[in-house]
Queue: 2 jobs
Job 1
Amino acid sequence: MTIVNYADKIIRELEQAADHLPAAETESLAKRILAGGSVFVAGAGRSGLMTRAFAMRLMHMGIPAYVVGETSTPGLEEGDTLLIGSGSGETKSLLPMAEKAKSLGGTLVAITINPESTLGVLSDITVKLPGVVKDKADGTSQSIQPMGSLFEQMLLIFFDALILRLMEMKGQSSGRMFGRHANLE
């Protein structure tokens, strides 16, 4: 099979998965973000990279957003939101920070394949995305892609779609957002 064939299969998978994005939970999340407070994001591995991309777009919108673990990240305060991307919802390094955020009066959001996971159950808002948990991707799953690739790609697509919804809700344009783009590159 060629790279073009694989790319076509991946795009078809993403199209099918996009049909299952949850509208109600997404709207609740958008309203929560616009309600105020800072947004903190966390995730491990490739899921973490997708949450970092989301934090950047929130910053471009003028919404205070931080990546957990960075040296310039302030402390979470009551009324802030911690958003965690975790396919399994069981990533051991993420669960203690979820519990800490709740104890500080933060709103906890889980973006996961498994809403019944420890993280999903603990969260105030749980958004279920299509995908395959990486250690369950054994070649018999609904994805041709390795490990958690489908979830990670859907996470980025979901975040970009959420940004578009937030832009619509705030009456924000791409041009206005570009004014907050890094200028020391």
Note: Residues 3-173 form a domain with the Rossmann fold fold (CATH 3.40.50.10490).
Job 2
Amino acid sequence: MSIARILALKGAEVFTTTPEQKLKEVAAELARRGIGALVVIDRWGEVAGVVSETDILAAIGARGADALEDSVANHMGRNFRFLTEKDTVDDAMETMTIERRRHLPVLRDGHIVGLVSIGDVVKYRIDTIEAERLALHQYIATA
């Protein structure tokens, strides 16, 4: 199954921030929206990275509450593999595992078209397993 299918099911809305925004503002936005990460867009409109709740906690753990005044640029994840809509769920799981990332931006022609989280991948896998279970149950019941 492709990443495009996950985006079709969950929606492709992506919430963003800038490298200059303060971590406290990002934390408030994450809490307000009930999400775990924002895609960081630079002044040229390109993906510069992802800032997650984990990044914020790591910053606070290292520097205390003063870290909340730091800019996103100092703490965001960067230089990691992006997904495309043609990538598979297995590709996403492998990348998330190897790179220890819970959120991966999805790009088309260099532009952000979605964000896939580990939760999205797990939900897809559970739904797939449940559909297979039901199909097997129906097959056995009619045999």
Note: The first helix runs from residue 3 to 10.
